[in-house]
Amino acid sequence: MTNYKSDLLRTLDRRGYIHQLTDAGALDTLASGQVIPGYIGFDPTAPSLHVGSLVQIMLLRRLQQTGHKPIVLMGGGTGKIGDPSFKDEARKLLGEEGVRANVASIRRIFERFLTFGDGPTDAVMLDNAEWLDALEYIPFLREVGQHFSVNRMLSFDSVRLRLEREQSLSFLEFNYMILQAYDFLELSRRAACRLQMGGSDQWGNIINGVELARRMDGTEVFGVTTPLLTTADGSKMGKTVAGAVWLHEDQLAHFDYWQFWRNTDDRDVGRFLRLFTDLPLDEIARLEALPGAEINEAKKVLANEATAMCRGRAAANLAAETARRTFEEGAAGDALPNLKVTGEIGVVEALVALGLAASNGEARRKIAEGAVKLDGETVREPTHRIAVSAPLRLSLGKKKIGVLQPANG
């Protein structure tokens, strides 16, 4: 652990956010002496972000907590292109209306994590469409394009890996890193932004922006990246068998969000408490040191705190109580995934509709394995039909549980 003097870098270091830094000493000195506006970009490719974006959201929260100014940059312009970084193929291009709708929807997420306003450390949300949409191609090539080496751009991992795999990389996507560098330059000019943060896959793009600001304006700006976040079993953070863990409640129920954190691997508990909660470090040290089965109490604390931050304390309390009743008392809670049924439904269809199984094939396999139960009784046949005249609890394994409700109930 490095002995930083600024609250910002000391906090980021102790909580495990730092992977790479440009000129750590100069950034540390600057952060000790003034308010630093810092930004992270988010492309509005869906109405919600998912848990895979949460480290970056928390990074902006830490920036504000340590007395600096977060800038949330929505990629209304770059979102029309798509970031090629470590993708196997091009993203589907969004229209103007789709981008605008997604930006408005995503803003609600940030309002839970950051304080927005007009004060010196209040967060602001900007959209790079404001300057990118107005660019003229020939002047942009003359003024900005001359500062980029294609040889160097081809060497960045995000591009090189696509080419080595012989996967198509369009000229449209190749331009993305130039536009992101230009974003940093514009934010430096418009908002005195001195810091860009992002995941480790953004390092090349951030370096481009740092160098562009120096070459065109003589301005010193900085970059910070976070480690690639994987779980202890090596899987990508925020992805489950059932799909993405969305931050918006209209795309993922409160209980499912709480349960995602509750199911954290024992080896990840301390790390996730540091990254995704505001608990003091000494309390986290105590929780992650709990022996044996007691570590489950730390997982409940993680689930409660992470859910309260994203969904509100009332939602966290309801989800925790539902889990207690479901797993300790065998009750069917209101916060579990619910499905309204008129008359009857096939068990395979029900498992998929509740999100307990990702496909009909998985549902049939789990039934054959004896892993599916209806109100505590094992379902043996995939052709079984369930008559729903009262609430019924359908479970796959010990942790995936949903409720079938009569449509007129």
TrEMBL record:
A motif ('HIGH' region) lies at residues 44-53. GO terms for biological process: tyrosyl-tRNA aminoacylation. Gene3D superfamilies: HUPs, RNA-binding S4 domain, Tyrosyl-Transfer RNA Synthetase. Residues 334-387 form the Tyrosine--tRNA ligase SYY-like C-terminal domain. Its main location: cytoplasm. One of its GO terms (cellular component) is cytosol. It is found in: Cytoplasm. L-tyrosine binds at Y39, Y176, Q180. It is an enzyme of class 6 (ligase). Keywords: Aminoacyl-tRNA synthetase, ATP-binding, Cytoplasm, Ligase, Nucleotide-binding, Protein biosynthesis, RNA-binding. A motif ('KMSKS' region) lies at residues 236-240. Its EC number is 6.1.1.1. It catalyses: tRNA(Tyr) + L-tyrosine + ATP = L-tyrosyl-tRNA(Tyr) + AMP + diphosphate + H(+). One of its GO terms (molecular function) is RNA binding. InterPro entries: aa-tRNA-synth_Ic (IPR002305), Rossmann-like_a/b/a_fold (IPR014729), S4_RNA-bd_sf (IPR036986), SYY-like_C (IPR054608), Tyr-tRNA-ligase (IPR002307), Tyr-tRNA-ligase_bac-type (IPR024088), Tyr-tRNA-ligase_bac_1 (IPR024107). ATP binds at K239. The keyword Ligase applies. HAMAP family: Tyr_tRNA_synth_type1. Catalyzes the attachment of tyrosine to tRNA(Tyr) in a two-step reaction: tyrosine is first activated by ATP to form Tyr-AMP and then transferred to the acceptor end of tRNA(Tyr). NCBIfam families: tyrS. Homodimer. Belongs to the class-I aminoacyl-tRNA synthetase family. TyrS type 1 subfamily. This is Tyrosine--tRNA ligase. The lineage of its organism: Bacteria, Pseudomonadati, Pseudomonadota, Alphaproteobacteria, Sphingomonadales.
